Amino acid sequence: MTMKFAERMESLKASEIRELLKLTERPEVISFAGGLPAPELFPVEEMKKITGLVLEESGMQVLQYSTTEGFAPLREKIAQRMEAVGVQATGEDILITSGSQQGLDFTGKIFLDKGDIVVCESPSYLGAINAFKAYLPEFVEVSTDDYGMDMEELEKVLSTRKNVKFIYVIPDFQNPTGKTWSIERRQKLIELANKYNIPVVEDNPYGELRFEGERPPAVKSFDTEGRVVFLGTFSKTFCPGLRIGWTLADKELLQKYIFVKQGSDLQTNTMAQREIDKFLELYDLDAHVEKIKAVYKRRRDIMLEGIKQYFPQGLKYTYPEGGLFTWVELPEYMDAREVLQKALELNVAFVPGGSFFPNGGKENTFRLNYSNMSEEKIQIGIERLGKVLREMLTEKTV
Amino acid sequence: MTMKFAERMESLKASEIRELLKLTERPEVISFAGGLPAPELFPVEEMKKITGLVLEESGMQVLQYSTTEGFAPLREKIAQRMEAVGVQATGEDILITSGSQQGLDFTGKIFLDKGDIVVCESPSYLGAINAFKAYLPEFVEVSTDDYGMDMEELEKVLSTRKNVKFIYVIPDFQNPTGKTWSIERRQKLIELANKYNIPVVEDNPYGELRFEGERPPAVKSFDTEGRVVFLGTFSKTFCPGLRIGWTLADKELLQKYIFVKQGSDLQTNTMAQREIDKFLELYDLDAHVEKIKAVYKRRRDIMLEGIKQYFPQGLKYTYPEGGLFTWVELPEYMDAREVLQKALELNVAFVPGGSFFPNGGKENTFRLNYSNMSEEKIQIGIERLGKVLREMLTEKTV
C-alpha cells in the first residue's frame, strides 16, 4: 500500500554512522568509525554483584513501573556529581533519560516548530542533527576554532536572525572534532545568550574523560538565568547498554521535559537506574573513570603518533585532551567518502565528515575514534589509512 | 527567563494517571487507579539467575551499544510468539522499543502533521492520546459497543473526512473499558481500512491475559496489504520495569520506525533485551502468564462481585474477559472527579473517565484496575467506593 507520512519523514534517513557500524561488525575490520567505549573496561563483575543485590533487596520495585522523573536517589547522586563542574543542583532538577540522545530528541520536541532556527557548531554531532531534524528546523552553523565557537559570528546570527530557538553546543571534547571550549568562550556564550534571550543546550557526554589539563566549569555553571539545559550520560563513564542519561534544567523547564518523557516512553528502565545507583553507592565511579582514561590516553597517543608517522605531511588534525575522537582535514579537493571506499578494501573504517555539517559540504574531513580498538589495531589501522591517503594524494599530484 | 516553546507544548500536560499515581503512593491508599501489574508475581528469582547468566556469558556485549533494531534472537522469538494470534512474521519485521508506549510516540512522529486526523475508539487509551497530541492532530472518536467500534460510524468518518492518517484501536481488553472486539468487527475494520486506504495501529498490551474464552486472532492477522502496525509489550506478561516492547510492521514501514528510533534514543537497553531473551530460552513464559491470569481472574471476580453487592443498583459496568480494567458509567448528571474527591477521603483511588475521551466530555465515567491490589483490599476498597456512590446518589435524590 502507499501511505501518507508526516512531512518530517522526508528529511529523515538512517544515520551514516549507525549504518556503517553494521558494515563494520565483521571482526577483521579495524573500525575507527563508531563512538563505542572499550568493552573490556566495563565493570562486568561489579554489575553481577549489583544486579544480584538490587533484585535481592527490592526485586518487586526494580521490575515495576516507576516515576517518569526517575529513581530519586540516583537523581540526587547525579546532582551531587554535577558539583565537579561548578553546577549547584538537587535531584529535583534532574530527569533520567534513555541516554542523553533522548534529551536531544526531547529538546527538539519542546522547542522546535517547522522553520525555527537551531544554532550549532560547525561541524556538530550527527545524532543531535538527526534528532532535531525530526522537528523540521533550519540549522545555522557557526564556525569554531580551537577555543570554541566564533563569538563575533554567533552575535551576528543572534542579532540578525529571528526564531532562533536555542544554541546547541558540545563544549568538552566535541563530537566530531575533539576540541574543547575555553572558559572565556563559555562565559561569552552565556553573555550573548542572556543579551539575546536564547536558551542554550549543553551536551556533555565526554567531559569526565580528560587525560590532561584541568576540567573547565560547565557552561551551565555560568548560567544565572536558568537558560542552560545540561545533558549528561553514563554511557561513556560506565556503560552505554544500560541507556542511562540525564537532563538537568531549572524546575519549570524540566517540567516540560518530564511531560514529554511521559508521552514518549513513560519512564526509563527501572532496573538500570537502580543498578547505576547501587554502583555509585558501593563503588568509586571516579576511580573507574581513571582506569578508562588511562587506556584511552594511550590509544589517543598511539593514534596521533601514527598519524604523524604514516599520514601525508601537511594534513590538519586535532589534538584532543580527552574524549573519544580526533578530526582530520584533507586538502579541499579530496572527498573522504572516496578515502573510505579504499580504506574499507583494507578493512579499515571511519566516518566521513560531511554529515556532521547539517547544511552539507566539507566532504574533505573525517572523524577517527580511538576508544574502541586495541593499541595494536590502532597502529595497524592508521598505517593502512596512511597508505591509502598517500596513494590518493600521489594520484592527484601526478 | 521567558522562553518560546514549540506550539505542541501548549497542548501537553501531565497525564492525570501518572500524577494520581504519585498521590496514591501512600501505603494506606487502596488504589484502583494505575495499570500496574501485581509485583508479587514478578519472576525475581528467575531474573537473578538470568542476569547472572547473561553477564557471565556475554558481559561485554550486554553492556555495550547495540543495533537500533534490537537483539536479533529476541526479535526472532517475538515473531514466533505472534503466531498465537495468527500473525506470520520474522524477526526482521520487529523493532524493539522502550515499552509499547514508545511505539505510540513513533507512530505519531511518523504519520502526523498538524491538523491530521487520528480515528480512535471512544473512549481510548490516555497514554496514546497524549503521545499523539505532541504532533497536534485532531481526534475523531468513534462509538464502541460490546463488540468493538461502530462500523457504520467508522465508514461515515472515513468516507467524509480527509487527512485521516490512521485508525488507532486496542481490540483486546481495551484500556479503559476492558472490552474486546469480535472477530467480525476485526475483519470489517480491515475491509474498511482497505477500501479507504488507511493504516491501522493495533495496540495490544493485554491480549495474552485472557481468563476465559478463546483469544481471537489479531487484527494484524487479517491484514493482507501491510497496513496494520502491531504494538506489543512484555510489561504485562513479564515485568514493566525493563521497558521492553515491540513494533511489528511490514519491512518498508518498519524502516521508518527504525529511523525514528535512531534519532529518539539510539536503541533500547541492551541488557534488558538479553534478559528477556534468556528468560524465553530457559523458562516457559506461557506458564508464567498462566500464573498471572489465575491471580488476576480472582481479583476481577472479587471486584465485580463487590460492585454487584455494594454499588448502587442500575450502574453500568463492563465484564472484562481478561486484562486489567473494568469501566463504570454513572448517571449522566454525576461527575466522577467529585466521586474521586470523596473516595480519596476514604483512601480509595481510581481514574475518572473524562480524560480517556480526547475531545472531552463523559465525566460520568471511571476506570477501575484490579491487577495491583490484594483480594482483601479490593473487597474493602469496593465496599468503601460503594458507600461513597450510594451517599452521592442519595444526596441527589433528596
TrEMBL record, chains A, B:
Q: Which Pfam families match?
A: Aminotran_1_2 (PF00155)
The residue range of the signal peptide is none
InterPro entries per UniProt: Aminotransferase_I/II_large (IPR004839), Class-I_PLP-dep_aminotransf (IPR050859), PyrdxlP-dep_Trfase (IPR015424), PyrdxlP-dep_Trfase_major (IPR015421), PyrdxlP-dep_Trfase_small (IPR015422)
Name the cofactor(s). pyridoxal 5'-phosphate
Set out the biological process GO terms recorded for this chain's protein. alpha-amino acid metabolic process
Concerning SUPFAM superfamilies, the annotation shows: PLP-dependent transferases
Q: Which UniProt keywords apply?
A: Aminotransferase, Pyridoxal phosphate, Transferase
What does the subunit comment say? Homodimer.
| Name of this chain's protein | 2-aminoadipate transaminase
